[in-house]
Amino acid sequence: KTTSTLSALYCSAFLSVAQAVITVQSEPRIIKELAGGDLGITATLLANTSGLVGLIGIIINQIGGKFSDALGRKPFLLLGPAANVFFGVLMYRYSKHRRVVLPVRILRAILTTFSSTVMLTAAMADIVSGVQLSAAISKMGAAVGAAIVATPFLETLILQRFKMQTAYLALSSLGMAHVLFSLVSVPETLVKSQRKNWSSVLQLSSINPFGFLNIFRRGSFALQKMTMIQTLQMCLEGKNLSELVELWKREHLDWSVEQSRNFVMIYGTLSILSGIFITPMFLKKLSARGFTSATNLLNLLGFLLRGLKESSWVFLLAVIPMLPGVNGVSATALKSISTDLATAEGFGKGEFSAWTNNLRALAGAAATVLYGNYYAWCKRKGIYQGTTFAVAGLLGAALPELLLCLTRDSELRREKVQTGKN
User: Fold this and answer.
1) Fewer CB within 10 Å, N side or C side of the chain?
2) Which of 399, 60, 39 is nearest to 236 (CA)?
3) Phi, psi (5° rounding) for residue 220?
4) Dihedral angle of Cα 347, 296, 327, 48, to the nearest 10 degrees
5) What is the rounded (10 degree) CA torsion for 417, 193, 202, 118?
6) Euclidean distance between CA atoms 415 and 118, whole angstroms
7) pLDDT digits over 8-49, tens only?
8) Considering the entire predicted model, what is its pTM?
9) What is the DSSP string of 272-329?
């Protein structure tokens, strides 16, 4: 039963990512049109709306994570896909209206992320733990890669034959398919005996968007360090860099829609293979410290190379070192340890998942705003915009590696430790 449930969750992850990726080329182009073709304004709009996603998302993650500990995961797994059915139609109808496009872009990203990342992580933690949870997270990464491979092909077909905004009708269709799949195939993972009572859920603290500070008030020093390392690593998540990468491909590498599609499909295929073979091998052969350090350094190398030169070959070759730890996979080993430790220290799994995702959202918001505005500043000042990738590498790989170096081996453990700073 556990295996079949995990398989259903992987499929749910695939469909969630498909909904996120289906407009990866269309949406920046639509926003560029709304910005009058100005690349600097486009970068700023993309960055600032993504930043708002992170800031508003922490409230949704906090409330939803707490409520899921009492109501179960399934209703919240359905929330994002159901909303996307409506959002897709709305965006198609009003794609020329900035006052519709930008707010809906924000809401769509918030709800899609909550129903996928937050709830899927909590659902998996309900049924597996320890090494099994690490393996499940890795396999979910393969499902994410599969969605990244398949979806751009569909979007390219749409862009070649229809108006750009037609991709939003595909979003609605994917959302409907996801809703139907979840209703039929995804079981509830949180049994009633493990749910929290309503008295604890309905406390005022349930709607406190800064509830994650409990990790630093009540959690052990070891839990705090691991959480901060993972938070910094999430600055390199694909969603925080997707608009920057699209601008780079179209405006600096002069790639066509078909070339961009081919890259995304090849990159997704490599991500799948990495998730199936390379990442599990790293997890098996290396300690948690070794895995985290290796993927941090490889990510740093990849991002330093990525913007080194306005060259397609340099951009493509930079992908290779990033594969074992790209898109937040570098946090896999510490994520399972910190989840087990948080549970041992008395935190609810849904609650802790929401808190860590709130931190992730804040980091993503700050990172996205930094990347976009730094890029726009470089363009205004005549500075080479490829340095934006180096900034990302320093923030999402070098800084967490420095913090890992300051963490003792005795702190990287799953069992309960004394709370507070030691």
Assistant:
1) N
2) 399
3) -70, 160
4) 90
5) 70
6) 23
7) 999 999 999 999 999 988 999 999 999 998 888 888 899 899
8) 0.74
9) HHIIIIIHHHHHHHS-HHHHHHHHHHHHHHHHHHHTSSS-HHHHHHTHHHHTTTGGGG
